[in-house]
Amino acid sequence: LNFLFIFFYFFYLFFCLCELMSSFLLFLYSFFLFVYFEVVSLQIPSNTPNFVIFFADDVGYGDFGFTGHPTILTPNIDYLAAQGTRFTQLYTSAPVCSPSRAGLLTGRLPIRSGIYTSHNSYPYDQFRVFYPFSTGSLPPSEITLPQLLKEHGYSTAMMGKWHLGHYNNSLPLHRGFDEWFGIPYSHDEGCPPGYQMPCETSQHIYTPTPLYDGDTIIQQPVNLDTLIQRMTDRAISFINESSLDGKPFFLYVAYPEAHVPLFASSAFLGQSLRGLYGDAMSEMDNSVGTIYSYLVQSGLLSSTYVFFSSDNGPWTSMGIDGGSAGLFRGQKGETWEGGMRVPGILVGPSVSPFGIVTDIASQMDVFVTFLDLAGISLPTDRPIDGVSWTNVLFQSGRIPRHCYFLYRDSLLMAARCGAYKAHYITQCGYCENPPVSHSPPILYNIQVDPSESFPLNTTEPQYQTILHIIDEAVHEHQSGMEAGISQLDSYDLKVEPCCDLADRCVCGPW
Ligand SMILES: *[C@@H]1O[C@H](CO)[C@@H](O)[C@H](O)[C@H]1NC(C)=O
Ligand SMILES: *[C@@H]1O[C@H](CO)[C@@H](O)[C@H](O)[C@H]1NC(C)=O
Description:
single chain; 10-stranded mixed beta sheet; 4-stranded antiparallel beta sheet; binds 2-acetamido-2-deoxy-beta-D-glucopyranose
């Protein structure tokens, strides 16, 4: 077309010069000009797909219908799994909430952004996430996925749990989101009434969990009975408004399910065979289905990529209220597979339905993959730990990664290269025992032995060779690692969110 355009242009000029301009040629010229610009403008939407991330909280690999749970019913998420490609060896960037979310939104290991505590002994090692009295945050120098998309014309919104700091202008509106409706941290870090979290015990020093709209607390404590419905409605209005504005959008829905204390609204309460955990899962599943159906109905699905995952493994030390890691060992807070291996589904234009990817994948890859799909270049001034999935999704290639490094806070605990995983340090997630170093490391073939039940005999030459390869990779990785300043080591009780100090931080309506 470029060629034709230029050809007719000169043709037209030639006739002009010869004073033989005919209305027919003028018509042809305008016609090709029109077609040319029409084609150019039609190319824009295909370069600017929409993105949706559904992120569950503390939900285990084994807690879904599609991963084999017998009594938790997740028909909508199972449907997503069937419509798209599943990632069976997907890792989170950290086994607890705050650093995991930092990895997802920045494409970088949380050690780089400082989302770790420098304490690794009990009880201070429990401050591995942001608390109501934390003064740190995801540093403003980090580049987030919504921030980059917004710079390229996207509308960006978040619904649900942030957990990357709240003090000193660090809520989502200051990290790339146009809109945010949700809670700043986990709802157990507060005292919503009726959920076995009393507001006024001697140990309990948290203010009630607030609900924010943007930078403003609109309710404290948050009404959990209506929270999911309101998040769902807001997500749908956001999609509607963005498409009416003709803008591509990025929507991040970070559910509080199924973090303890468990809750479900009256429509779901008592409905599941798996008790309150199953009720909470059904409510989340219903919300995912409602938002997904809206994308289908409004014709946006053909230009939208949808990613579903959970922030980390299940909190099984919560007993009956904790989820299931399926056949994986360990739980939230640990670098055993049960803490780090998470469910992963990607649905979108040209992504194979019923697809399965078994390559080593990471939630940090979502940052790189989405930018790649949007045609936006990656930041070049900093290391990015994610890699793009486009090879494996569209070209039957592989995910370009050989090794993956598993951290707890700033400690590199384990490394996986190919099928093998070496544990250099292990530590239980929620207990008083200090970290235990292993020399030589404990080695498993994770593909043959996903449950980490049969340690390999590292005196055998073949495994010594493998350990040597993993050691070298760890050494290379660590020699280039620059840790950010810890954001989880500083506290001040005065920074707890409070809508009205005079009224004990309680504000309606509910
Ligand atoms: C607020 O954040 C900025 C940017 O990170 C930092 O320079 C400043 O010291 C912080 N202020 C306080 C009071 O923590
Ligand atoms: C989007 O919002 C407009 C205006 O609020 C409304 O009239 C329309 O029905 C909505 N569209 C859909 C598909 O819900």
